[in-house]
Write a structure and sequence with these properties.
Length: about 210
């Protein structure tokens, strides 16, 4: 895939505004300030396909991007305290309605800041993904901010901090150094190859 050819499609603040699903979708989820925008920009080798802000909680919409036969959904960051309750509820409804919908969501990249234990919101999201049988991968962000020993300590701690840790695929990443991007690329390409390009018919199978 030619990663830097990704195109921004649209942003939606209400689930009802989102057009019907027409291809597979991969979502990026995580709390505010987890480094989601920076990671997305690094994956696609673009400086500003996803807006990076110094103000956590600024992403208040679902932002859609498209590359070949895959649509990507950048979900609003959750868990930011300095937001009105009504706005928090709107974000929650937007995320919940999207994940509960019949859209063809083939994977969720669930981001967690590797430097800290998962938050209550992180654990609730993981519980939901497990219970709903939604395929997901844990993406551990900001590893470049840890010393090698701290890295190993956090990896060990996550085995007890995360439910079903030994059954979950985890990718250690850095939007600064590019660590982990090859693994993410491989996962996306594998999913894209399993889905016919829009407008093509799937191959016939012999009965």
């Amino acid at each position: 895939m030619k990663w830097n050819q990704v195109e921004f499609e649209a942003s939606y603040g209400l689930f009802e505004q989102i057009p019907p699903c027409e291809t597979i979708e991969i979502a990026f989820s995580g709390r505010s300030n987890v480094g989601k925008s920076s990671l997305i920009n690094k994956i696609f080798n673009r400086k500003s396909i996803a807006r990076v802000s110094s103000m956590p909680g600024k992403t208040t919409t679902i932002n859609f991007f498209r590359l070949e036969n895959v649509r990507f959904a950048d979900l609003p960051g959750y868990g930011y305290a300095k937001v009105a309750k009504t706005e928090k509820q709107r974000w929650s409804n937007l995320i919940s309605n999207y994940l509960h919908s019949d859209r063809d969501i083939v994977l969720v990249f669930q981001l967690i800041d590797m430097r800290h234990a998962p938050t209550k919101d992180d654990l609730q999201m993981i519980d939901y993904l497990v219970e709903s049988e939604t395929p997901f991968v844990i993406v551990l962000t900001k590893v470049d901010k840890l010393r090698p020993r701290q890295r190993e300590e956090r990896l060990a701690a996550l085995q007890t901090e995360l439910p079903y840790a030994n059954q979950i695929t985890m990718i250690v990443t850095s939007a600064e150094t590019g660590e982990g991007m090859d693994q993410i690329h491989e996962i996306i390409e594998e999913l894209a190859q399993e889905e016919p390009t829009l407008g093509e018919e799937p191959p016939e199978t012999n009965q």
